[in-house]
């Protein structure tokens, strides 16, 4: 999916996260940019697909791979509203994404700057450039409100 939106990729990811929350999904959105153009926009769909692997990052990577057609995403950047978990970090490394921008830290489930710090492990064969804290406040607020509403 391409777009000429004036919103930044992270702002688009935040809109997707809000849409996920509206659908009862954990509010995480992901956007893939290839050569300066948004090519994929997707939100978490674990509940909708009855699939615990249907994280926004995983879906975005699969869709981007299908569009790019090279088996790798070395010319792509991923924008995601929450720090990727171990599963998603592994997929990011295997897809060889160039950069990962994320919003909110995830001290409990994150695997980039928290937890296992996947990209820093000697067994990780590709380490993307990571830019953390992009629109962090907005990302964290969506998540906090979502879980507060469920208590």
Structure in words:
The protein is built from five helices and five strands, in the order αββααβαββα. It has 151 residues and is α/β, with parallel strands linked by helices. Helix 1 runs parallel beside helix 5 and helix 3 runs parallel beside helix 4. The model has no long low-confidence stretch (mean pLDDT 95).
Give the radius of gyration.
14 Å
Low-confidence stretches: none
Strand order of the largest sheet: 2-1-3-4-5
* Proportion of strand residues: 15-25%
Give the key terms.
single chain; 151 residues; alpha/beta; 5 helices; 36% helix; 20% strand; globular
Write the layout of secondary structure elements.
Elements (H helix, E strand, L loop, with lengths): L8 H14 L6 E6 L2 E7 L2 H4 L6 H13 L7 E7 L3 H10 L3 E6 L24 E4 L3 H14 L2
Parallel strand pairs: 3-4, 4-5
Antiparallel strand pairs: 1-2, 1-3
Quick overview:
With 151 residues, the chain is of the alpha/beta class.
């Amino acid at each position: 999916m391409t777009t000429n939106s004036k919103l930044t990729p992270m702002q688009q990811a935040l809109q997707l996260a809000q849409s996920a929350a509206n659908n009862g999904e954990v509010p995480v959105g992901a956007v893939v940019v290839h050569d300066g153009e948004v090519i994929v926009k997707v939100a978490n769909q674990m509940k909708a697909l009855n699939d615990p692997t249907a994280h926004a990052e995983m879906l975005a990577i699969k869709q981007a791979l299908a569009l790019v057609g090279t088996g790798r995403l070395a010319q792509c950047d991923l924008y995601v509203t929450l720090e990727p978990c171990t599963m998603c970090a592994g997929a990011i490394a295997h897809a060889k994404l160039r950069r990962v921008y994320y919003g909110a830290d995830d001290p409990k489930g994150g695997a980039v700057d928290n937890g296992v710090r996947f990209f820093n492990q000697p067994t990780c064969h590709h380490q993307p450039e990571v830019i953390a804290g992009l629109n962090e406040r907005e990302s964290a607020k969506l998540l906090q409100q979502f879980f507060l509403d469920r208590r």
